[in-house]
Structures are given as structure tokens and as C-alpha cells.
Design goal:
Layout: E1 23-26, H1 28-32, H2 41-52, E2 56-60, H3 69-72, E3 80-83, E4 88-91, E5 97-101, H4 106-119, E6 124-129, E7 132-135, H5 153-157, E8 168-174, H6 180-191, E9 196-199, E10 205-209, H7 215-225, E11 233-237, H8 243-248, E12 251-254, H9 260-265, E13 268-269, H10 277-290
Parallel strand pairs: 1-2, 1-11, 2-3, 11-12, 12-13
Antiparallel strand pairs: 3-4, 4-5, 6-7, 6-8, 8-10, 9-10
Helix pairs in contact: 2-10, 4-6
Length: 295
């Protein structure tokens, strides 16, 4: 972003102009949503304009399906969203029905639990299932999920639980003392061979998915089904769980409020989420589409 706060252009492909965008992939918290978790009227209008121009919009988030009400009204034709950092594709037009689940095997989740208990004593865990979240007594309580079961992670992940058939979407690991990036680096070093580990919270809260599962890998699957190449995707994000997606997309933007790793991964930068940074870029894309130009 320039000194005057203007959006910096994403880099062009070395062999010529970037192909006209066919799909926009955007994170939610800290990206599309303002800090008060609202979607601004400007952003609502920009999303609708993109769809009207024939550009699909995918919400790609770490949020579980049950927390998607904030944007359900703004998913247009296809109705799909990628949730839980790529662990689930959800149809928001069909009551948040799971279209695809890329589960974290319980054996792998248990291995990660045991490994992190040794590598980072004091770590507490929560288990996000397709049916909801459960967590340990020492884990920060989820006030949005008052019906959660509370038990050790080993108990929650054991095969004899009542919800043993429910797929595990992700494991959450919290540490009260470690710095967020320090905890992430430690966890990846100790347990990265067993699962994909990332973070999106400003606190030391890690999100652990099945090995190879990420926003990027699930978005790639969705795009392949539609015959859309990475070069035809424009992506937006602000936190480490967006890095792979921004690196994969042909054009990508870090928000003005983004983590340094995100800025390094993106090919361009836009204004902050509270300044409608996603809408700023979409408006330009739509204007170029209408004018018959490629960006």
C-alpha cells in the first residue's frame, strides 16, 4: 500500500497480463468483515456487483459452518463456502449442509495432542466436530457454544464417545503464556508431520487440520471442478491461515491490517478491513470487466 493509503497493484504474470478474474476468494474475520463483525453496505454492493459481472465469490474462512450467519445472505448463485480452514465445504443455501468434509483422523489428532502436551506443557485443547465444538476444562470457554461437552482431549477423541461417528474438522490448541507465532513455530516443528497447523487468532490459539488440508487445497479442488485456474483467482486475507491461499492464487491481496507473513505472501496490498479493502479491489475489478479490460 502506498504512502497515501492507495491500493498497490498485484503483480502481473511474467508472460503477459493477468487473465480476467473468474473467482474471488476472501477470508472473513479481519478481511471482509469489519472489526465489529459487520459487512458494510459498500462491501455488500461490491459482492453483488461481482456476481452480476459473472465472477463467483467464495467465502474461505476458519469459522465453523454454524458461525456463517453473518454472510449467509451474501452468498449468491452457488451458495457454497469453505469453512474450518478447508476442512468443510458448506452449502449456505441449504441450511449449512456439508457438501464435502476433509476430516482430521482421530488417531492423528491424538498424536498431535500427546506431542504438544510434551513440547508445550500447559497446552489445552478443543475438538471441532461437524456436530459442534467440545473442549477441555482448562480451555477458554466458548460462550457461543453453551452446549459443548467438557472433558480431556483424549476422552473427546476416543472411539467410545457418543459422537465418535462425527468427523473431526479441526483440533484447537491454546497456550496461555507463549507468544502466538512462537507457539505456531514450536507446534509445526514438533507435530507438523502429522497435521496441518496454522493460526488466525491474535492469541496463542492454533488451528490443526488433517495433513494437507488448508484453505488453499480445498479452494483448488473447488476451482478444478469449475475449470478455473489459479491465474483466474483473486484472493484476500490477513492472517497466517491465509498464506497458502494467497500464494496459490494468481492475484492476491494482503489487507492493510495483515500479519507480516501475509504481506510477504500476497502479490498486492489493499486497505484495512475497517476501510472496506476487499470492496475497493472488487469495485476496480468490476469496472475493468465492464469496460472490457483485463487486470
Amino acid at each position: 500500500m502506498g504512502e497515501d493509503g492507495a491500493v498497490t497493484s498485484a503483480s502481473q504474470c511474467p508472460d503477459g497480463p493477468t487473465p480476467a478474474p473468474r473467482l474471488i476468494a476472501t477470508d472473513l474475520d479481519g478481511t471482509l468483515l469489519r472489526d465489529d463483525k459487520s459487512v458494510s453496505l459498500r462491501t455488500v454492493a461490491a459482492l453483488a456487483a461481482a456476481e452480476e459481472a459473472g465472477i463467483e465469490v467464495f467465502f474461505v474462512t476458519g469459522r465453523p459452518a454454524r458461525w456463517m450467519d453473518v454472510v449467509s445472505d451474501h452468498v449468491h448463485g452457488h451458495g457454497l463456502a469453505i469453512c474450518a480452514n478447508g476442512a468443510a465445504v458448506v452449502d449456505l443455501h441449504a441450511g449449512r449442509e456439508f457438501v464435502q468434509v476433509r476430516a482430521l483422523p482421530r488417531t492423528a489428532a491424538l498424536t498431535v495432542v500427546h506431542t504438544l502436551r510434551t513440547a508445550a506443557p500447559g497446552t489445552s485443547f478443543a475438538v471441532e466436530l461437524t456436530t459442534g465444538i467440545n473442549y477441555e476444562p482448562t480451555y477458554p470457554p466458548f460462550f457461543q457454544d453453551p452446549g459443548a461437552n467438557v472433558a480431556t482431549a483424549e476422552k473427546l477423541l476416543s472411539d467410545d464417545t457418543d459422537e465418535s461417528a462425527a468427523p473431526v474438522l479441526k483440533l484447537l490448541a491454546h497456550h496461555a503464556e507463549l507468544a502466538p507465532d512462537e507457539f505456531l513455530a514450536l507446534a509445526r516443528s514438533a507435530a507438523g508431520a502429522h497435521a496441518s497447523i496454522t493460526r488466525s487468532s491474535p492469541t496463542a490459539l492454533l488451528e490443526i487440520s488433517g495433513h494437507g488440508v488448508s484453505k488453499a487445497s480445498t479452494l483448488a479442488l473447488c476451482c478444478a471442478e469449475r475449470g478455473i485456474s489459479p491465474a483466474e483467482v483473486v484472493a484476500f486475507g490477513d492472517m497466517p491461515n491465509d498464506v497458502e491461499m494467497l500464494s496459490w492464487a494468481g492475484t492476491s491481496y494482503a489487507m492493510g491490517n495483515a500479519h507480516p507473513d501475509v504481506v510477504a505472501a500476497a502479490s498486492g496490498r489493499t486497505t484495512a478491513n475497517n476501510e472496506d479493502g476487499v470492496a475497493v479491489v472488487i469495485e476496480r475489478i468490476v469496472a475493468d470487466r465492464i469496460a472490457g479490460r483485463q487486470v
